[in-house]
């Protein structure tokens, strides 16, 4: 891939928490409209990669670029604002604001952070809740929703920022098997619409279906990456083979 | 055994004192609670910034005001603020008077005392916020201040409402100590009345009843507020 046309570019990114080096030189380029799945054992640094891309975690060395934003050079939350407008994130534990209804959760940031017109945002929020099939739950509080419903509200909230990229951090890991499907359906639609997505996931079947590319991480490195068919059917690295042998 | 005589209560002078005293007590309790609430909110916010010297200053403030008797604090403020320097010349009479009245000294002292307790209450509320909520707010581009105002403070203040009710109850009761520095609140007038009438037991029983009524009303009001502000999944929320 030509490096200059990448929307997101990580180059030799390292990150340590105390003495523990989580990322040992991650390089990754994601094109506009691409869906990339990151798979790998727990503790291999998958979630940390996502958090570095939108600046939630500062990196120790290397560089991260998203569009025109040089994330590694940003120091303050204020500088990161335009970046966070462009990059939304959906979390494993949904992370909805418990004191606000589903509709308010979706509307809050566009109104309060981006300063968009309230009425326009409300129309957008209702449209997005309809998209994730939760129109009738608009006035419910997160505490009144099931895990799968909360996660779909979280997806609507991420979309309401009108981002170019969405980062999905093990978004089905905390869900019941029955509700996993409804969330994956919502994500699949976004990928089909051409939204750039980076997904950390343990759903191998889903990764194979939606991803343009799959990256396998282990011990803070991307061991192997390629089209899903190659990674799942003909893994080259023994570690990839071992991992897939355990989970598939 | 009891030979209670409440005939003095028919005297309009005493009635007026009791009413004025009760109103002053309410005023002092609510004003000092409101200021304490603001001190608590900003103190706890400042602690989240993790600036070493600021943490030390707030820590010291909390320790000093939480760990010393409020009566001592009140006397300290009364005698230092009114005698050391802070005096002004009354333009009407030309007499040098303390810049701050006894009421003002009691208000400052009670606000700081309550403020120290409120900082601890809010701090515990903020500490109990799920870290995930903060992370979500950051990922949506909220600035530090917006995050505090729109998300952390609304959730944390609901979590610590029961603690705030305790602090306000305490404020109400502690106002009685302002009588020592001549603030004309309920306890002060009670003293005036029994000095006049020698009906100490009767006056104390009545004052006790007034305090119980006031604080019960306050607790009832706070529980109502808790109900109104509750959201599903937390505290009183269904």
Would you mind describing this structure in some detail?
The complex is a heterodimer of chains A (248) and B (238). By secondary structure, chain A is of the alpha/beta class. Chain A has a single domain, classed as 3-Layer(aba) Sandwich (Rossmann fold). Chain A has nine helices and ten strands. In chain A, helix 6 links the parallel strand 7 (165-169) and strand 8. Chain A is globular and about 50 Å long. Chain B has helices at 12-48, 52-66, 70-83, 102-127, 131-139, 144-159, 161-174, 186-197, 200-229; strands spanning 87-89, 96-98. Chain B is mostly helical and 238 residues long. In chain B, helix 8 (186-197) runs antiparallel to helix 9.
Beta strands of chain A, count: 10
Query: In CATH, what is the class of chain A?
Result: Alpha Beta
Hey, roughly how much beta strand do the residues of chain B contain?
under 5%
| Chain pair forming the biggest interface | A-B, 30 and 24 residues
Structural class of chain A: alpha/beta
Quick one: how many beta strands of chain B? 2
Shape of chain A: globular
Radius of gyration of chain A: 18 Å
What CATH calls the topology of chain A is Rossmann fold
Our count of helices of chain A gives: 9
Tally of structural domains of chain B: 1
Classify the helix fraction of chain B into a percent range: over 70%
Overall mean pLDDT of chain A = 92
List the strand order in the largest sheet of chain A.
6-7-8-3-9-10
Q: How do the helices and strands follow one another from N- to C-terminus of chain A?
A: EEEHEEHEHHHEHEHEEHH
Largest beta-sheet characterization of chain B = 2 strands, antiparallel
Taking the alpha carbons of the first and last residues of chain B, their distance comes to 51 Å
- Point out poorly predicted stretches of chain A: none
CATH classification, class level of chain B: Mainly Alpha
The main sheet of chain A comes to: 6 strands, mixed
């Amino acid at each position: 891939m030509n490096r200059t046309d990448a929307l997101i570019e990580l180059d030799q990114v390292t990150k340590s928490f105390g003495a523990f080096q989580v990322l040992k030189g991650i390089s990754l380029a994601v094109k506009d409209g691409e869906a990339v799945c990151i798979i790998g054992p727990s503790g291999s640094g998958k979630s940390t990669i996502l958090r570095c891309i939108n600046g939630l975690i500062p990196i120790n060395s290397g560089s991260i670029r998203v569009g025109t934003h040089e994330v590694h050079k940003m120091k303050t939350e204020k500088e990161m604002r335009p970046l966070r407008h462009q990059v939304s994130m959906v979390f494993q534990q949904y992370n909805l604001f418990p004191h606000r209804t589903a509709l308010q959760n979706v509307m809050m940031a566009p109104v309060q952070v981006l300063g968009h017109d309230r009425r326009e945002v409300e129309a957008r929020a209702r449209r997005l809740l309809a998209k994730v099939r939760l129109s009738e739950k608009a006035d419910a509080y997160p505490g009144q929703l099931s895990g799968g419903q909360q996660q779909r509200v979280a997806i609507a909230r991420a979309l309401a920022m009108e981002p170019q990229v969405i980062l999905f951090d093990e978004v089905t890991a905390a869900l019941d098997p029955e509700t996993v499907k409804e969330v994956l359906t919502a994500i699949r639609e976004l990928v089909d619409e051409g939204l750039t997505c980076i997904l950390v996931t343990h759903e191998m079947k889903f990764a194979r279906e939606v991803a343009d590319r799959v990256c396998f991480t282990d011990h803070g490195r991307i061991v192997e990456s390629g089209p899903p068919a190659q990674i799942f059917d003909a893994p080259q690295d023994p570690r990839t083979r071992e991992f897939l042998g355990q989970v598939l | 055994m009891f030979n209670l005589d409440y005939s003095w209560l028919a005297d309009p002078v005493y009635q007026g004192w009791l009413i004025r005293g009760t109103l002053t007590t309410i005023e002092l309790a609510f004003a000092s609670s409101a200021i304490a609430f603001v001190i608590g909110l900003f103190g706890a916010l400042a602690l989240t910034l993790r600036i070493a010297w600021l943490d030390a200053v707030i820590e010291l403030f909390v320790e000093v005001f939480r760990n010393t008797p409020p009566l001592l604090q009140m006397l300290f403020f009364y005698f230092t603020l009114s005698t050391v320097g802070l005096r002004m010349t009354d333009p009407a009479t030309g007499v040098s008077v303390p810049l701050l009245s006894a009421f003002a000294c009691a208000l400052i002292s009670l606000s700081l005392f309550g403020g120290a307790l409120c900082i601890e209450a809010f701090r515990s509320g903020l500490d109990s916020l799920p870290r995930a909520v903060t992370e979500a707010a950051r990922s949506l581009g909220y600035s530090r201040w917006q995050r505090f105002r729109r998300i952390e403070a609304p959730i944390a203040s609901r979590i610590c409402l029961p603690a705030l009710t305790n602090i306000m109850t305490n404020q109400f009761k502690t106002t009685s100590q302002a009588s020592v520095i001549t603030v004309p609140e309920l306890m002060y007038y009670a003293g005036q009345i029994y000095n006049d009438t020698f009906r100490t037991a009767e006056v104390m029983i009545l004052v006790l009843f007034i305090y119980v009524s006031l604080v019960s009303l306050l607790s009832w009001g706070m529980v109502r507020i808790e109900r109104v502000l509750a959201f599903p999944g937390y505290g009183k929320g269904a």
